[in-house]
Amino acid sequence: MPIDFAATVGYKFVRTSDYNTDLGIYRVVLKFTGTYALPNHFWIDAGPVLHTDTRLQGDGYVPDVHFDDAWGVTVGAGWRWIGVTYTNIHYNSELTGRLDASNVGATFTWKF
Fold this sequence. Notes:
This protein is mostly beta strands. It has one domain (3-108). Helices cover 0% and strands 70% of the residues. It is built from no helices and nine strands. The two termini are 19 Å apart.
């Protein structure tokens, strides 16, 4: 059966330094996926994802926000070493309430 399991840890951030600011959102990402190999080197994967230590740095323009840890689900599909992913996840904080942080991304994988 062509199934592979992986656990990854990463650090995601988005920053802007325009107009003498240092705005950004930062988080640690833990992802657990099962990948199923399809014919002709195609693959699909899915699994739970945890975003922890998620924070918005407002640099004085907007308030700094520390979000609660958030669990979500990620799915992906690709060919050989390139693919696309979709993560459905929501962030919560007392200041903002519930925010949709779902996202689409590209993935590049090298297995050895």
